[in-house]
């Protein structure tokens, strides 16, 4: 922390505080979890302060500084990456009448860096030592009414498979976020520390999943399309009766991370935020 105090000739005291604490760090490719906080205060006061005044002044400055750091650290819904999925519903309005649309997801790379890296890499296509993983050309294999839409099986395609960039599975990160709104994306699993590539999109809040499944992002665009998928008839095993395929996808890191507001986090409609990639 750097504290600079300058007394202006007109009786103004200018205080600048630069704080650069590493809020989080990672050796994972593409994730830079550092924040630089700048806090500037312009205080009009007498040219000379007594000792009690100086004491009060520095207490106030320190308090404001800590509040700024706390606000930044506690923003667990910061979008650091965005991913897009182009999806086709075959024969939606009849034979050869397909429906094309897109999902755009905001990913929380500060809160769930390991999970976001896995998702982002597979969205772009991951190749390593003979392993090829890609969400492209996979399908939405499960739709549960008023609950979720599930996808991401990059090995078998039917919901029985999946694989991560770290191996077959990877461990849970800290369960920081809640399944508290429609549009939440969270990892599917078959028990503790069994995350692979499958994930689900919530149709409504489901807080009973907290502590069991890892939230790592939020749907930004495509809520109307989400509801159209949710309305498709399914069979006894919750498989949609129409073929729903991810025909293209990708992800990229945003130039300037954006912290979603409370209203944006709770939104069940498209979220308008200024993301520069």
UniProtKB/TrEMBL annotation:
Residues 102-251 form the PPIase cyclophilin-type domain. Its EC number is 5.2.1.8. InterPro entries: Cyclophilin-like_dom_sf, Cyclophilin-type_PPIase_dom. GO terms for cellular component: cytoplasm. One of its GO terms (molecular function) is cyclosporin A binding. Gene3D superfamilies: Cyclophilin-like (2.40.100.10). Keywords: Isomerase, Rotamase, Signal. SUPFAM superfamilies: Cyclophilin-like. The keyword Transcription does not apply. The keyword Isomerase applies. It catalyses: [protein]-peptidylproline (omega=180) = [protein]-peptidylproline (omega=0). GO terms for biological process: protein folding. Belongs to the cyclophilin-type PPIase family. PPIases accelerate the folding of proteins. It catalyzes the cis-trans isomerization of proline imidic peptide bonds in oligopeptides. Acts on the folding of rhodopsin RH1 and RH2 (but not RH3) and is required for visual transduction. This is Peptidyl-prolyl cis-trans isomerase. It comes from Octopus vulgaris (Common octopus).
